[in-house]
Amino acid sequence: MNFNEFKKELFDCANKLGCSAAEVYFEEGDAFSVNILEQEIDRYTAAVKYGLNLRVKYQGKDGYAYTEVFEDAEALVKRAIDNAKSIESEDEHPMQGKCEYEEVGTMLDPFKNATEQDKIQFVKDLETKAKEKDERVLRTPYCMLETSKLAIHISNTLGLDAKEEVSVSVVLLDVVMQQGDETKEAYAFEVGEYAGNADMVVDSAVSLCADKFNAAPVKSGDYRILMSARTMSEMLQVFWRQFSADLAQKGMTLMANKEGTQVANEIVNIIDDPKHKVYPRAFDGEGVPTKTKHLIENGVLKTLLHNLKTAKKANIESTGNAGRASAAGAITIMPTNMYLQAGTKSYDEMVQSLGNGLIITELEGTHSGANDVSGEFSFGAKGLLVENGKTVRAVDQITVAGSFYEMLMDIEELGGDMRFCAADGSSFFGAPSTIIKKLKVAGS
Amino acid sequence: MVSEKIAQKVLEAALETGGDFSELFLEDTESSNLSMIDGKLESATYKRIRGAGVRVLKGSLSAYAYTADLSEEALIKTARAAAAVFSSPKAYTSMPIAVKQDYTQAVKRHFKDIENAHRIDLLKRMHKAAKGYSEEISQVSSRYFDITRRIEIFNSEGLHVSDTQPRVRVMVEAVAMKDGEAQSGFEGPGLGMGFEAFDIIDVEATALQAAKTAVTMLHGKPCPAKTVPVVIDGGFGGVILHEACVHGLEATFVAKGDSVFAGKLGQKVASDIVTAVDDGTLPGEWGSIRIDDEGTPGKRNVLIENGILKSYLVDRRNAAKMNHHLTGSSRRQDYTFAPTSRMTNTFFAPGDDDEEEMIRSIDEGLFAARMGGGSVMPLTGDFNFAVAEGYWIKNGEIVCPVRGATLIGRGADVLFKIDRIGKKLWLGQGNCGSLSGMVPTNVGQPRIRVSEMVVGGKGGDI
User: Fold this and answer.
1) Best mutation site among A35, A71, A378, A410 for testing chain B: the one with the most B CBs within 10 Å?
2) In Å, how far is B6's CA from the nearest CA of chain A?
3) How many structural domains comprise chain B?
4) Are B274 and B365 contained in the same domain?
5) Same structural domain for residues B178 and B303?
6) Which of A307, A362, A399, A424 to mutate to test the interface with B (most CBs of B within 10 A)?
7) Which of residues 62-121 of A touch B (CB under 8 A)?
8) How many Cα atoms are found within 13 Å in the side-chain-facing hemisphere of A363?
């Protein structure tokens, strides 16, 4: 049975069984990935995938059921109704009706029309380039390209019919380098527009790795910190949930009720821009048109991220940030392309400005070392020691600790090098290199 | 899920381009996820995935293709998509398929027979228990998850096996708030069995523990940043073994030399008191597998014995290359991943040391009573993990709770610095992410002591 036939059966059945509305979220696509080792295809994956998530409205409550098997519509509808009947939360979650979308262009994907052979050759060349870049490069445990094409279709009985096609490529390079008896490892990845730029990926992985030789800890204490664009992007990726209206309404983020108040230094602007070329999209996970907005403007919290449900509860309009953690998940909240706005200084000028302190080039354990509720964090870190505006040596075996909220207040300077360096599902995070007044470092 | 005749055709098609081994993995999995917040059920989802993956090996090279379409035509197409990577003449033919061996074990209470009301009751009881612990508990969220994973595997050596793998887990997060400060506590027990798991799992005790952690940490001081001795309690504390060592024993990393433990079989890698085990055969445990996702029966593997490295964790693809036996722990999240060597239930074996003396004999240090998650770079062994509930020790006594602590170190060093291992072993549940996706694993240990570790936190001296 094809999608359209199955959808019709689901909608008919939902209507017959007493649902006031029904919606399907359908994803269909193919995926390809290849990892090259010593010029041979070490790992290769090709795939065709599809799945459908049914959402029904039954006595005002939402119930979900996901399947990859387009058989027995009635059983699936009954599952969804059963789930809807269990819901006790009184919060109303409106369903988006028919609407028009702005033209937002498509994600720039250098491999959109590439053949499989082209892609394999690209990765082989990437390995060669990495080895030629620096004689200390021993091997590349990961040298891979993943490309995927995905068609998303949201359709409901209220007339919504939103369709979007996405083509995404990710390139990942992990290099191992040796100098004397020291072995170091570092990786770099690029998504979208820059994924086709092998030289850029090689440069960033090799330079990050080369900077690690002769590393040692620094003494424990407070340090003035320069976060690189990459580590600052990762900070946003870790802490974006602080801006979730859903968590705020449940009292699980300290951003709750802070709209209109100063939450960051006045040079700080954080923007969620669904139209940004890194991953443009016209509608969110429930078909609401997306919009560009400041979350923080000149240090003041302007809005949290809303979907139709949290917006209804707050009596405002949705910010178009409904998301789904996976095709099978319930509707939640996600940022789109969220970034900390750049300043003007070059990276070298930022190092000058730092004066005495640490540049943090890598964070470890970002998935576990953060407290989502309090905003406190303690991460493993690597970086460089800076004295009098000059890089002195590499630093490792340290941790950096602080609080996201204090850090926002302590941001002193922003570089001009804003880049989207972190991603989580279809959310992208960008930041420039950033000077922070102080963080606590544990070392020797 | 497909006939033997079709399976045989798929395995043959996969070998057409010179592969020396082919495998067809079929999966039909149902799961339920319920989440409650503030005592009210907020979302309920059901998920069924069904699909197939075809893998072709040629030496140690691997090609994989998968599809959600189980028709004969789609499966053959998928086999050819995987085989397309190689371009040699056909060298091997598939052996006749053996009679199916089914590893499915009896389940007392199947999830399909459980009404949502019973699941919700568990969540309500957790909410009530956590909320009642203290007035400082401002919010409780709880989740219920069950999964019935049906798999069937054919391979070109004639293997034909199937299994049905039930798992169930509840998770509770309690938030304590006071004067604009917030701390949380988490517990997430799970077992590899049907709904009868709740004859064993005490949901109230689980929720109380999460609430206790949150309230204790709310009254804690920020953890000092310092290098000190660390006592790590049993159960989920075993995450140190998982991160600091056993990821580095996975063939994924060892076969290519990307691990500090590569080439060290038979050598001393830990202090004499350390014995470490990965055991997939523990009945009904969260990380247990009767067969792995290549069809090899689960095993008890002694990885380190009295400080000597005895075994790696090895899958089919790497076994020949490493000249190592299969350890029955090749796993994958679902049919969209090719399998690779992973952990099951991984723990330090019990030792002889007195649990109290470990703390009493420390001048200044950290007692990590409950651990959070962590990660590792296997090449260098650099690991980090978070302490969810910690206490500062001075002059042999616990002086106050400390929050926001992170432990970092190098796997190869830390194993030598383990100077105490307690007598009582218990396990904790987690989900481990790696090349073949997220898989359920147990970590475990008795209480242990590490003579020196870097403790990261944002606090000053206590």
Assistant:
1) A378
2) 19
3) 2
4) yes
5) no
6) A399
7) 62-69, 79-80, 82-90, 116
8) 28
Contacts of A397 in chain B (CB under 8 A): 382, 408-410, 454
Residues B375 and B294 in one domain: yes
Question: Residues B309-318: what's their mean pLDDT?
Answer: 96
What pLDDT does residue A48 have?
87
B182 in any annotated domain: yes
With CB atoms and an 8 Å threshold, state whether B46 touches A83.
yes
Asked if B189 and B297 sit in the same domain, the reply is no
Last residue of one domain, picked from the residues B162, B195, B218: B218
ipTM: 0.88
What is the residue range of B128's domain? Answer: 4-218
Residue B47 shares a structural domain with residue B173: yes
Q: Which of A437, A435, A156 is nearest to A285 (CA)?
A: A156
- Sign of the Cα torsion A376, A379, A385, A386 reads negative
pLDDT the model gives residue B161: 98
B315 and B334 share one domain: yes
Give me the residue from B117, B380, B404 closest to A376, CB to CB. Answer: B404
Residue B462 lies in a domain: no
Give alpha helix (H) positions in B15-84: 72-83
Domain CATH for B104: 3.30.2290.10
Query: What are the chain A neighbours of B256 within 8 Å (beta carbons)?
Result: 37, 139, 141
Residue B461 counted as domain residue: no
Residues of B in contact with A444 (CB under 8 A): 227
- Examine the domain organization and report whether B443 and B358 are in the same domain: yes
Q: Tell me the chain B residues in contact with residue A48 when contact means C-beta distances shorter than 8 Å.
A: 66-69, 74, 78
Residue in A with minimal Cα distance to B408: A380
Same domain as B245, residue B214? no
Phi-psi region at A223: left, alpha or beta (left = phi > 0; alpha = psi -120 to 50)? beta
Residues of A in contact with B226 (CB under 8 A): 220, 442
Q: Is the pLDDT of residue B349 over 80?
A: yes
CB < 8 Å to A442, chain B: 225-227, 406, 408, 454-457
Yes or no, beta carbons of A46 and B139 under 8 Å apart? no
| Structural domain ending residue among the three candidates B163, B197, B218 | B218
A1-20 confidence digits (pLDDT tens): 688 999 999 999 999 999 99
Q: What pTM was estimated for this model as a whole?
A: 0.92
